Amino acid sequence: MYSLLQKASRWLSTYTSWFIIAVALLTYLVPVLFTWVHGATQSLILGFIMLTMGLTLTMQDMKVLAARPWDILIGTCAQFTLMPVIAWSLTVGVGYLGITVPKPVIVGIILVGCCPGGVSSNIMSYLCRGDVAFSVGMTTVSTLLAPVVTPLLVLWLAGEQVEVDALGMFLNILIVTLMPVTIGFFANLFLGNNERFKRAQAVMPAFSVLGLACIVGGVITAVHDKLLLEGFGFFLLVFAVVLAHNSLGYLTGYTVGRLFRFSKAKNRTISIEVGMQNAGLATVLASTFFVTTCPLAVIPCALSCAWHSISGTILATWFRNRDGEVAA
Q: What is the DSSP letter of 55?
């Protein structure tokens, strides 16, 4: 049984993107599959995903944070400035050029842009031969700062578009991200040498991916009927904005690394860390705080969940293949 779980974990880790897409398409066709994923259940699932992240953190990771404060500071500042500004520019900013973007797209993309780095970015950094310790450091710090920074940025950038409950958002992020990560870290600290604990750790990625799939499925179930009413044109618009936001994040993140003369490995890592957001958190926040005032805001968040994993895999593969070309 355990060997089967290990194989499933490896398979889901390798094919995360395609699994999420398959679940999304299946849910769109059969929306009743995930009617149970909403409200507190959705928050609990995200909390479990963040717990799995905490279980991977070690004291060595904390030492990395202390030993490389300058790198982490640059990366985290890039994370919480570039992506929010790009999100605002693609939605609110283009309004000054006479281009009207629907409010759900504005709110959803700004919310994604203001969230911390995604957990899967660490995997992508490993795949592209990046600086994994730097990746873990950036993700950890941005997650620790998220309860304060994310609500304030959303209030600042989207406050004119929709009412923002910054205090409620702070408490929600605190409970579903910071607390599980902290619990996971201390569990790993005190039980890390226990063989049973190590065996459980080895299969956690499978449950983490399943949790993310449930969140995406729950969102699609919730907005299914509204999305049908909006039509295919609305979906294309959302995807175009998600694609631009994500791609510009990768590009500007890499540019920051070049400006500060980072190594090739660190350039790749900061590119992926900046471009890949914790869209699962954005999805939960959108469905919790904007469900009545702007219900379709969850669509850009849910689409970002799937697309960031796909694009991150593509970019990591491209970076790795470039090493082969140079060697040849």
A: T
